[in-house]
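Here is one chain, start to finish.
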Amino acid sequence: MLMKDRNCVITGATSGIGRATALVLGAKGANLVLIGRNEQAGHRVAARIRRMPGAGEITFLRADLSAQRQVRDLAASIREQFHRIDVLVNNAGARFDEYGATVDGLERTFATNHLSHFLLACLLLEPLLQSQQGRIISISSSAHHAVRQVNTWMLGPETYDRRQAYGLSKLANVLFSVELARRLQGTGVTANTMDPGGVASNFARNNGLKSWLRHLLAHARHHELVRPVRAGEAIAHLATAGELGTVSGAHFRRPEPTTASPLAQDPQLGRELWRQSLRWTSLDERIGPAWKFISP
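Its structure:
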């Protein structure tokens, strides 16, 4: 499907999977809002897409998604530019080897990987509902299968474990998407998650060269490491395929349907996560008409 005149928002669009997704959707003529922290890299990606034949309107917006004030400002800027959003790709994510807190006082892995996208999707829900076939695609990971039970969503300095923190955040991505799909039934907007598998990107590079190389080698040993373009093509497929227009609440492994963990399909856990996420992001009826889909 060509994407001319369709408006797409992609977080984490300056490198890796997000950049690859932007290039694929840009080649299809979509109007793109590219979001990232690296301003120089963001403008380079935007300039490259603008040079493509038939390119749409390409905008780069700088934001640190771990800071809720910046997410709110970002959403306001996007809504000023577009009355309608057709695709939202919640791609940005990170894993931190050491405990850290955001400016909002929240554990940064969970805040970056889940709460930022929960907040952004809620703030952009109204323009998404203006699309005849809006799609929300959240990038999860097979790491969510490693979580056997949830005692707390945000680990503290004394209990912090990088694998557990990352797994919890990726479990939250799936639960959020499933609950959002339930809430949006009958609206024309779908919500799905995708596990991109092991991708040769800069993911985990923030923890140093050794940690990054261990991450890549672990996937390579299992013959799972792929180039970012494969993951980008898979995300673009979820964003454009006509046969997926009404599929919602599903989980994919690259472009193929797969099964999320039993915990990720627990409706009670999903509803409780939703209520807690509302508290952590201070969302309420001031958000406007979309509140009827968001309220606890």
